[in-house]
């Protein structure tokens, strides 16, 4: 699971941090979810973000993988909402489109474009999950004036009103 943090001042975007949470060292799914929650809270407490953007769940062939991914996203959402940080979700295609202009771009293409957009001398391509997290942050910046294009939440009430089908 990757994350990226950016700072925006005027029209300048600066990468603050990007990294991956290495979850394979944890013995079970529940422990991994706790780590995601705790790490998300610690990042919020350290960097005090104004907003959190997440990659929305996508449909895949492996139901178990989708379930685990949805739980991980939910835990990150819960941590953000616990600190009253507004959340916005973007589809994978929208993220790729915002960064590369191609909704079917590869992870490598997204990483290469992020390197150029953020004027980075080096970009560690071995951290492609981290670059995905960074791409979500940059996508959110690019779309922040176009709130009709994505869902935005200011708290649990807002989330539930916009997603009544997820209450089931």
Keywords:
single chain, 168 residues, alpha+beta, Nucleotidyltransferase, domain 5
Protein architecture, described:
It is a single chain. The protein contains 6 helices and 5 strands. By secondary structure, it is an alpha+beta fold. A 3-stranded mixed β-sheet has the order 3-4-5, sandwiched between helices. Helix 3 crosses helix 5. The longest helix has 20 residues.
Overview in brief:
The chain is of the alpha+beta class and 168 residues long. The protein has helices spanning 29-47, 63-82, 92-100, 107-117, 128-143, 156-162, and strands at residues 2-9, 12-20, 52-55, 87-90, 151-153.
Tally of separate helices: 6
| Cα gyration radius (Å) | 15 Å
* The CATH H-level homologous superfamily: Ribonuclease H-like superfamily/Ribonuclease H
Largest sheet: 3 strands, mixed
CATH fold group: Nucleotidyltransferase, domain 5
How many beta-strand segments?
5
CATH architecture annotation: 2-Layer Sandwich
Q: Average pLDDT, to the nearest integer?
A: 87
Helix content: 40-55%
Ordered list of secondary-structure elements with their pairings:
Blueprint: E1 2-9, E2 12-20, H1 29-47, E3 52-55, H2 63-82, E4 87-90, H3 92-100, H4 107-117, H5 128-143, E5 151-153, H6 156-162
Parallel strand pairs: 3-4
Antiparallel strand pairs: 1-2, 4-5
